[in-house]
Design goal:
The chain is mainly α and 88 residues long. It has three helices and no strands. The radius of gyration is 22 Å and the shape is flat.
């Protein structure tokens, strides 16, 4: 199998890894693709599980507005704590 990369940045990264590790480019690319499929499968299983939890009522969905409000509140609390970066 041949792989043609049109992105010089990716090619440069592969070349660096080849030089640093002494492994061939084909071996590095095979490992990267294998890792990608492992991660893809894990993500798919996690999403399926979360969907099943939502569908069964095991967990309650949270609106985007609730999430934003939660993180804004959390951020405001951190900024108001002594020793925060705003106090320095």
């Amino acid at each position: 199998m041949e792989v043609h990369l049109n992105n010089p940045d990716i090619q440069a990264k592969i070349d660096r890894w080849v030089a640093e590790t002494g492994r061939g480019p084909a071996e590095l690319i095979e490992d990267a693709v294998a890792g990608y499929f492992v991660e893809l499968n894990q993500t798919r299983e996690m999403l399926t599980s979360r969907y099943d939890d939502l569908k069964s009522g095991k967990v309650k969905p949270v609106s985007g507005d609730e999430v934003i409000a939660h993180f804004r509140e959390k951020s405001a609390t951190r900024r108001s704590q002594p020793g925060s970066s705003r106090d320095k």
